[in-house]
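Protocol step 6 of 9: fold each sequence in the batch and record its structure tokens directly after the sequence line. For illustration, a two-sequence batch is reproduced in full.

Sequence one:
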Amino acid sequence: MTAPVTTDFNIEEELRKLPAKPGVYLMHNDLGEVIYVGKAVKLKNRVRQYFQSRNGKSEKIVSMVSHIAWFEYIVTDSEMEALVLECNLIKEYRPRYNTMLTDDKGYPFIRVTVEEAFPRALFSHSMKKDKSRYFGPYTSGGAVRDTLTLLHKLFRIRTCNKVLPRDIGVGRPCLNYDMGLCSAPCAGKITQEEYAENVDRLIRFLNGDFDKVLSGIEQKMKEASEAMDFEEAIRYRELLASVKHIAEKQKITDTDVLEDRDIIAGAQEKNEAVMSVFFVRDGKLTGRDHFHMGNTENTEMPEILTDFVKQYYAGTPFIPKELYLQTEILEQESIEAYLTMKRGRKVSVFVPKRGEKARMVELARKNAEMVLAQDKDKIRREELRTRGAVHEIEELLGITDVHRMEAYDISNTSGFESVGSMVVFENGKAKKNDYRKFRIRTVTGPDDYASMEEVLGRRLRHALREAAENPEESFSRLPDLILMDGGKGQVHAAEKVLSSLGMSIPVCGMVKDDHHNTRGLLFHDEEVPIDRHSEGFHLITRIQDEAHRFAITYHRGLHTKNSIHSVLEEIPGVGEKRRKALMRHFMDMDELRAASAEDLAAIDGFNKRVAEEVWAFLHPDEG
């Protein structure tokens, strides 16, 4: 993989160096951002096409090429490897000029932890390569939760995190035991052999062996009815209905069944498309879902459908035997080979022209049109409150190209140690993975201006280091606009830091009125008039509220943890290790005091004697 220095990058010269081999190419703008990822059978031919005549190129491609400052590429051994790498890089970078699957949905599974002595049946967001057995994927989290609820009623499998058999007899059975949802192996209420039989029955049920369960419930319902225990009979009747409902939809991923297929069609309008997927399992339609594709303007449906198939199946563990599509896709042979490799068995792609299969594709297309029509107003409203709101702020301030906004706040309630928060909004949407918390290190007392200088200085110096050492790290990306929770003092503190680092980034203050409500923006020491009913004003309010909420939450968490820690230091026999164990288990002193001696004894590192001493210390009037 090449790693060019952007300032010296000569596109014409680098084009001549491209190899005639398969691989993936990444286009960068002058900020170093990846704006497009593509694959090629021959890198030399494909990449050079972008920089030749504009004739025949779409407006999107022409616009993308105008923003290319440099490119890099990765050579692969085959077109297949290039396709797999392309999918992974698109998901990682989410380039603005690629047609993108915007929903990023994942399909949940049921995980049975057969590697444990007393296995559990759990909700899992993905299928991992471990010793557990996975069942699914399900079309919704609700379907998994419904199934898990039924499994616990039928087989009384535990849900707790206790390590068994080590923790057998430690503490009392939980509420699930009293509700008949767990057989309480933690309290020795069932042997390991009996429990294993229940797990085997559960696995057979998930594999599709429903007959024994159904007949057993029917027998119990009949017996309850004959004994005139009608309440119990009704309970069994409801349980029977639940089992039948689940039985109709159940599917295990490694079952080799015929007639598993996905039917995919889409509808497009300007810069938005919706793809509708019908799931056919064992020859029956078991569900449907829809997905939004962004950046589709001036893009034809075959290309949109190609991008959807690649991105969707790159992130979905279950691959059906057949795909039925509304139109031909690009790169069909390589995509079929890729899907076959992922599935481990042959996968075929068809475009049916007549008959029942064509009718199902048309139904999927109409479903996509309906969803797009229903979502059109919602999409437009979302665009107005996000990118539209950012454009309003740009116009108010007389600046352009604002994509990333960072807002800062300081919290030092009641003189307790100060903390800072940084929240990030990209294109008008909160980017919570990039939020940061700062514990003030160099400032004593409640000095908000000095605290802000420390916080912003640490953040920007960190960015400069990362830009040199690890440019792909998210913290290395600088904001296009900095928002301070406050007026001139906070803005000047930020500008002082920027000046000391030789950086030029616009800084605004988010000022509040006498009632502590957002009033507007302070820019270049002047308050900018703003319509309080506008989307721009609403976005500023959301950002200011979020910065304040994030700072206060962090501050309270530290305050609570320090309060617990200071009290625990006074308890005889409780050292640092046990203090940390208690702080992990209890959020505040009220929760700690509410715990019984038995609850305390169940914590790692505690025994009965120490637990009783802690309890007695916390309850001096009851000892």
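Sequence two, same batch, same settings:
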Amino acid sequence: MKWRVVLLLSIALAAAGATAQAKPTPSTEILWDTYGVPHIFAADNAELFRAFGYAQMESHGDLILRLYGQARGRAAEYWGEKYAASDRWVVTNGIPELGAAWAKQQSPAFTKYLAAFAAGINAYAHDHSDRIAPELRAVLPVTPADVMAHSARAIQYTFVASEVAVRTQVRDSQTRAVAAAPSLDATEVGSNAWAISPKRTSTGHAMLLANPHLPWEDLYLFYEAQWNAPGVHLYGASLVGLPVIVIGFNGDLGWSHTVNPISAMNVYELAPLGEGYLFEGKEKAFEISHHTLKIRENNGAMKEEDLVVRKSVHGPVVVESNGRLFALRVAGLDAPGADEEWFEMARAHNLKEFQTALGHLQIPMFNVLYADREGHIFYAFNGRVPVRAKKDLGFWSRVVPGDSEANVWTKVHSFSELPQLEDPSTGWLQNSNDPPWTSTFPPELDAAKFPGYMAPQRASFRTQRSIRMLRVEPAFTLDKLVAAKYSTRSEMADRVLDDLIKTAMASDSQDAKDAALVLQKWDRAYDATSRGAVLFGSFALRWAGAPHAWATPWSTADPLGTPNGIADPRRALSVLVDAAEATKSRFGTADVAWGEANRFTRDSVDLPGNGTTGGLGVFRVIDFSPPVGHPGRAEGGDSFVAAVEFSNPVQARVVVNYGNASQPGSPHRSDQLTFAAQKQMRTAWLTRAEVEKHLESREAVP
């Protein structure tokens, strides 16, 4: 069967079993371009949302139903034991009930749109059930409560408070400190974003760079789309399964998000006392509820598990370890309007309207970078930041004692109380998951004017690289913006490589000298042809993570020049030799090309890779799996990327590196990996005439 059936607008469905609901609506259609991007033209907003749900199913139907099944807390019932842990997390945190409550708390207009989005999902599944994996059909029909539960699971319980982050905090509660130096984490959930004012462009137009990098799987996937309806003309991307575009631009303005180091959740340790826990010097009873989890076994039989949820004044108990109880409190559970806020942002036409939308403060986290046609640029450290009694961020970054009411926050800061910056004198704004204090440089936001728990003080190597590129370019063009976006030069290498080579060449170790010769020839970049990049990365991940590795640690007095130098030359040489031996063992040579060791692969596509982890100070972030026994495989990093110039008309370059579909059989699962390998972007087709010239198919939405 063909991948896509083109529905004729002039002929009513006459197949057996067709219903009146299956009749096409000629006024609403999807134009699919040659990269699988849906350009939706709808008669009204409700039809727009319906078509958006329909389109998402065509591109990601199996994934969406799996995600919604998980958000219901019934994934193990549908698909077996491997989802049992997910269900326990979802049910313990009350995500299905939260989704149902949020669905009822939407405005009348958005209630209608939410229902239309779910109806579009169900309409696609009804019309094309043969394209949905049989085991996933059990999730149907989808309801607005499912959509809201997925939104909560994806945002509040993945970005704000993931299970991994909670368990890590519990594990490290006695030793973890607020990070003050660049991190070398192997996998990042983050982004880059720039907003550039007209005085820093050669054309006199503001520019925006949207550059999220998330894992290339699961609920992290971005979905590129265009919306056209009365009062709504937006191009951008959504996270799969969400009913709205979350990063986008229209003819007047655009915005992007980065994950911010916001403290919007807390883990509390509870001291057991009797049948309850110690609170304000006496026993406090838990609120107890029982839930039956159904788990499908391999033979198809169903077993049941009684899940007891104990809820304290802080939140539910999410971890129990060696008699210790830990409860989770998450900000934003009382804010059901994040999706509607994104929709209001989409319909804004100037900075004032955009700020009014943000002022609702329904989106629980994410920095906002903004630019518009009038030439304004804007940054906001956005999110639901709790108002806390203690100002010390370190206190709130660890497990908090749960025995005092003073530690249980109940209010959040208003939008006006959050760090914001509009039209800075530098002419640019940036964020690379760093705190707000380096949103431009020299800084124009003073950390001392905000509560100490608002955000840490630090500047990662990636942030420093971002600022350096912005400061040295006096007049950006769209081409220069794209070229900067793909920079693979390592800021960390610039800080340590000269000292490392000098130390190695002066040593008595021939192995160290041989490794230094490889690094001496390296271009300090992570391009496909770069030789020495593998060796340096192997060295850096071994060396920089140790305490006191740097001769000069990171300092607020010199945020763009520290850390630097080698504190212990003997240890550095030992690590270098070990790294060289490991590289030769894996690849046969220490100067293997980066693109030989790390690949862009999916389905039948296999191409040389470029980019690396941002911890090395590379702006072009691509996370590769460890190359053990085979080349590393790209599994995260640059996702949806947009470079936008607010000219008249707007010009934009876009790419979704892994392709705009995950559905089996789709040609769009890997058709953009070539752009990733070539460090290129596509021209965004923004008008109907442009789309018609690059049309793959036309589809009416029933």
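Proceed to step 7 once all outputs are recorded. Observation for sequence two: The longest helix spans residues 45-71.
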